[in-house]
Amino acid sequence: MAHFVLVHGMCHGAWCWYKVVPLLKSAGHHVTPLDLGAAGISPKQISELDSISDYVQPLMEFMASSPEHEKAILVGHSYGGVIISLAMESFPTKVLAAVYLTAFMPNHHSPLATGVAEVKS
Q1: How does residue 121 score in pLDDT terms, banded at 50, 70 and 90?
Q2: The pLDDT of residue 118
Q3: Within 13 A of 17's CA, how many CA atoms are on the CB side?
Q4: Which residues contact 21 (CB under 8 A, 6 or more apart)?
Q5: Closest CA to 98 of 80, 117, 119, 116
Q6: What pTM does this model have?
Q7: 34 within 8 A of 5, measured Cβ to Cβ
Q8: Which stretches make up the AB hydrolase-1 domain (predicted)?
Q9: 85-103 b/e with 16+ CB inside 10 Å = b?
């Protein structure tokens, strides 16, 4: 079966997957819902996050520690789409697929920063 790694959106935590986790597990899949930096049960405070790297550190550490032969299906909700994109760039051989669940899907023609700047205008 597959290994699903669930990445929450902004202002959420791993808790937001509470209905999805048992469904995937009951289908025989391995499931890992993660809390990103300063989210959910993460011990970090928001004031301790100096960059996006600090925010995504839990996912990056998880991906780095996973066995080379195990490929994950990354699921990102909302801003989690940006986060799983970063993980896919850093660990391309450890990702089987990515699911963007009503999520930001960055690309080189329209990066996320451009969208944020347009909203501020």
Answers
A1: very low
A2: 47
A3: 26
A4: 6, 31, 33
A5: 80
A6: 0.85
A7: yes
A8: 3-112
A9: bbbbeebeebbeebbbeeb
CATH (one of 3.10.50.30, 3.40.50.1820, 3.40.50.2300, 3.40.50.300) for 3-120: 3.40.50.1820
Strands 95-103 and 72-78: parallel
Judge contact between 53 and 82, C-beta under 8 A: no
Which token pair is 119? 């909203």
Taking alpha carbons only, the member of 30, 117, 15, 39 closest to residue 73 is 30
Q: Model confidence over 8-43: pLDDT tens digits?
A: 998 899 999 999 999 999 999 999 999 998 787 777
pLDDT at 117 over 60: no
Tell me the three state secondary structure of residue 85.
helix
Angle at 57 between CA 88 and CA 29, to 5 degrees: 60
**Residue 71, token pair as written in the block:** 């490929």
Secondary-structure percent of the chain, ordered helix, strand, coil, rounded to 5: 40, 20, 35
Token pair for 27:
């289908």
